[in-house]
Design goal:
This protein is of the alpha+beta class and about 90 residues long. Helix content is about 25%, strand content about 30%. The strands form 3 sheets. Strands 1-6 form a two-stranded antiparallel sheet. The protein has a two-stranded antiparallel ribbon with strand order 2-5. Strands 3-4 form a two-stranded antiparallel ribbon. It is elongated, with a radius of gyration of 14 Å.
Length: about 90
């Protein structure tokens, strides 16, 4: 949740609700661990998490950039993507 809150500030949105936030493990759907590639002779391991809830756009320009480019360092592996729909 700390990562999501930090990224929301950078991404021009505020977290309004995360489903199951009282019981955080229910709010986060863990994706199976994935190992891809090598970095300086070491394996790179990434693990995905799916957040579901509601957000409020606080900075339209920054939000559009986050929506187009994603959040975080795992974008090269298909992580950090935003899917949004109207309430």
């Amino acid at each position: 949740m700390d990562w999501l809150v930090r990224k929301s500030t950078e991404g021009g949105f505020a977290i309004m609700e995360v489903r199951g936030a009282d019981n955080v493990p229910d709010a986060l759907q863990r994706e199976p661990g994935i190992v891809r590639g090598m970095r300086e002779g070491s394996r790179v391991t990434v693990e995905g998490v799916v957040f579901e809830g509601r957000l409020r756009i606080t900075d339209a320009e920054r939000f559009c950039e986050a929506l187009l480019t994603g959040l975080g360092r795992g974008k090269a592996y298909g992580f950090g993507l935003l899917s949004v729909a109207p309430v």
